[in-house]
Amino acid sequence: MATNDTIAAIATAPGRGAIGLLRLSGPQAQTIATALCGTLPAPRTAGLRAFRDVTGAILDRGLVLHFVAPHSYTGEDLVELQAHGGPVLLDCLLQAACAAGARVARPGEFSERAFVNGKLDLAQAEAVADLIDAASREAVTAAQRSLDGEFSRQLTQLAEALLEIRVWVEGALDFSDEDVDWLADARLHQRLQQWRGELALLQAQTSQGRRLRDGMTIAIAGQPNVGKSTLLNRLAGVEAAIVSDRPGTTRDLLREHLIIDGMPLTVIDTAGLRDTDDAIEREGIRRAWDVMHKAEAVLYVSDDRDADSAEDQRLLQQLPLQIPVLHIRNKSDLSGAPTQVLRTPRGIELRLSAATGDGIELLRQQLRELAGWNPAASDKQTIFTARTRHLVALQAAAAHVDTAYQGLLHQAPAETIAEELRLAHQQLGEITGQVSSDDLLGSIFSRFCIGK
Ligand code: GDP
Ligand code: ZN
Fold first, then answer.
1. Is residue 326 part of a domain?
2. Residue 213 above 60 pLDDT?
3. Is the CB of 354 under 6 A from ligand 1?
4. What ipTM was reported for this prediction?
């Protein structure tokens, strides 16, 4: 994809500000900037210039900075005009640039060009967007590490090691008529197993990085009055939800964003589940079921004094099978039973008291486990930002390598094994963008801000 047009965008946030930035990138960037500013300063040095529109009228005076290809963010000629940050003024500048031959950039197009020109790989380009979107200090550090190429470096190492294994297996294809059985060599099995262990490590880190970026959404559900809202307030550490003795008080969804040991969580309190003729309450209950189906986990709350009631059993059975359910037996202070984690044939139950806070630490621990969150690994040394797309590709790579390994153990034909390893390799390449489709690129870069 050769880019022969020059793109322009206002790169600072919309609205008024002290400074506003107009960015140009492409083969005509210098020519267009010259039309606006008269002359350009030497590359990489700032120069004060008057900015003019097509009629020659001065719009503003400001600094100009230009970078010559390939030594720029995009890898193309790139010019930045620093004007005063007025929306109308910046719009006039953008129009002047377009009149001089530029085209308004699509969201993310500067980064897309950086990717196309090999300045960033795809995982790094995504990290640029993640850095801009980062909602916590941890997320900033993690995105910065990805942008630095930490994730890409580990992927490249894995890909190179896999390539060596592939060369070995494909060698077996080429020399299949010889007496030596290449594929039976214990060293090959060992290498493959070791590689699989390294991949598992990267998967764990990636899953942690994905959590840091996307968090996890959990629904709190159960019958009325069992303490759902009290539990949410206890987890949030603030009075977010209305707690009331009157059943049916939480009629709509209540969303709270929490951070537990650095892990972002969205917890949704839902309307109590019961039969009712009240139309508003019924709508709340319908939404509650909707949320339970979309959540990544459900905290099903019941009153410990009555936790094995037929109604609770009935409701628990209606919960979507594929979603992990943590059964909270609340009000342990009233039942008098010890707070603890109970492993039952139906899954994990947790007895606690939302009112007193007894057992809440056990719940936090269970939530960390559910999310696959390792607080020790969330320190700055090992974490990088990652996306579901990355995790899915790593999982697919793992599955192909597992199939290849099984093939080795069961003397599958070398062709089959080689093909599985090739597919695994391809999955790794999709993360950094060595293998990519236009659809994938489009969906990634269209979510960027304009001017980035
Ligand atoms: P929800 O309808 O499930 O959201 O229940 P609420 O959180 O509104 O609580 C209903 C009632 O139970 C309120 O009076 C709470 O104070 C009380 N409650 C909630 N959790 C506990 C608990 O752990 N122990 C005791 N003793 N009371 C609780
Ligand atoms: Zn409630």
1. yes
2. yes
3. yes
4. 0.99
